[in-house]
Amino acid sequence: MPHDKLEEIQLEGIKKTVISCYENVAFYHDTFDEAGFDPYTVKSLDDIAKAPFTTKQDLRDNYPFGMFAVPRSDVREIHMSSGTTGIATVGGYTEHDLKIWGDCFARGIEYADGGEDDVCHVCYGYGLFTGGLGAHYGGVAAGCMTIPMSAGNTERQIRVLREMGSTILCCTPSYAMYIADTAIAMGIDPKKEFRLRVGIHGAEAFSDNFRRELEKKLGYRVLDVYGLTETMGPGVAIECMEQNGLHLAEDHFYAEIIDPNTGEVLPDGEWGELVITTIDREATPVVRYRTRDITRILPGTCACGRTHRRIDRLHGRTDDMLIIRGVNVFPSQIEDVMKTFTQISSWYQIELTRKNHLDVVTLKVEPNPEFNFDEVRAIEQLQRSIQARLKSALSVGIRVRLVEPKSIPRSEGKAVRVLDLRGDDQ
Ligand code: DLL
């Protein structure tokens, strides 16, 4: 669809969304009034920038059902964010919302020319996490034979991958790597014994190197999928086979990029925080939701010919930024330096501790399997070179420790990349 036609659909949807929020959700009624935003006067897409932002805290304050814009009896399903850092947030879905969710995830399968001949193996966690059921509805909507594996029991995953001939793998990228490594350790070559064509991986950031390694081990193409509980779950944006940015489902989500400090809307191409307004979500619509995720709108059109604009792969979150002795550091910057060393793998963990009231950052990283772990001098030399390159790239001292292969904990869900142990002064 030409983009100007799409914008007409967006405007019509947004007009309905802001009115529904104002009339049905006390929180929006109050905040719109306080900000002097009149939802009945939205005439263009630019007018949405006059509305106040919604934050995760606002959703928490209205836990559990305060953000519902429809009667409770119209809600068919709920999901919740993990709530590891506070009260969880709740997303509600009407029948219409569930259909849209399936359609959005199914786009990723369609990008890979998937359909009735495919076997969609879903090992994102099912349950309150949106990964499992989001990918599941997508697999069904795309016409695939869908296998609801959920996460865990990796040997059984491997058995099913082989025996059912799964062609599409949906899970976190770190779990996909764990499956690949486990299969290889069992003497199975996944490239030969699995029939995977494509992996639709997301829920956490992963580097280009990590992607290439996965593609090499599993013999398939990896597409990045983005989403969050507060706006729907996986499928808000998905990469096409060009692997050059994630197409936003712009007929359901209106995206803005803002300067996280000033709140000002930034032009296409500039990095900032992604802000999303839902266009036709019924149960829990959100207006200008601050995702905390850092990306940019890629200018220009995609070689695949689709007109939906693309966001760049995520560059971390405003709240994962580490402040190390006053310097702002994102884990993705550490990964960028790691990529320049062929001797090390993509498995790492950043450990933050405090010594004499000063932050100490230790990067624990596993070398590649070919690296000779018995050569103490080679280990020390490599640690020193990584340290030096980190220092010159980030202007902070980071200790580097090469650790035994397979010693960084593998996860079935999102990988834990940063361990903050600064609570105890050591
Ligand atoms: O992680 C939804 C999801 C499930 C997305 C499966 C993709 C696949 P939450 O648990 O609410 O929802 O976490 C949302 O995860 O704000 C990002 O910080 C991060 N995230 C999600 N997808 C990506 C991605 C799901 N492709 C939070 N790359 C978001 C980097 C991602 N980070």
Number of strands: 20
Based on secondary structure, the structural category is alpha/beta
**Rg, please?**
22 Å
Per the principal axes of the C-alpha atoms, what is the gross shape? globular
What does this structure look like?
With 426 residues, the protein is of the alpha/beta class. It is globular, with a radius of gyration of 22 Å. α6 (154-163) crosses α7 (173-185) and α7 packs parallel to α9 (208-218). The mean pLDDT is 93. It has two domains: 1-319, Rossmann fold, CATH 3.40.50; 322-425, 2-Layer Sandwich (GMP Synthetase, Chain A, domain 3), CATH 3.30.300.30. The protein is built from eleven helices and 20 strands. The protein binds 5'-O-[hydroxy(phenylacetyl)phosphoryl]adenosine. Residues 81-82, 124, 130-131, 202-205, 224-229, 233-234, 291, 293, 314, 317 line the site of 5'-O-[hydroxy(phenylacetyl)phosphoryl]adenosine (DLL).
Jot down its keywords.
about 425 residues, alpha/beta, Rossmann fold, GMP Synthetase, Chain A, domain 3, 2 domains, 9-stranded mixed sheet, 4-stranded mixed sheet, 11 helices, 20 strands, about 25% strand, globular, binds 5'-O-[hydroxy(phenylacetyl)phosphoryl]adenosine
Topology readout:
Blueprint: H1 3-24, H2 26-35, H3 56-61, E1 77-80, E2 90-93, H4 95-111, E3 119-122, H5 130-141, E4 145-148, H6 154-163, E5 168-171, H7 173-185, H8 190-193, E6 198-202, H9 208-218, E7 221-228, E8 233-239, E9 246-248, E10 253-258, E11 272-278, E12 289-295, E13 297-298, E14 310-311, E15 322-324, E16 327-329, H10 331-338, E17 344-355, E18 358-367, H11 376-394, E19 399-402, E20 418-425
Parallel strand pairs: 3-4, 3-5, 5-6, 6-7, 17-20, 18-19
Antiparallel strand pairs: 1-2, 7-8, 8-9, 9-14, 10-11, 11-12, 13-14, 15-16, 17-18
The site of 5'-O-[hydroxy(phenylacetyl)phosphoryl]adenosine has 21 residues, from helix 5, strand 7, strand 8 and strand 12.
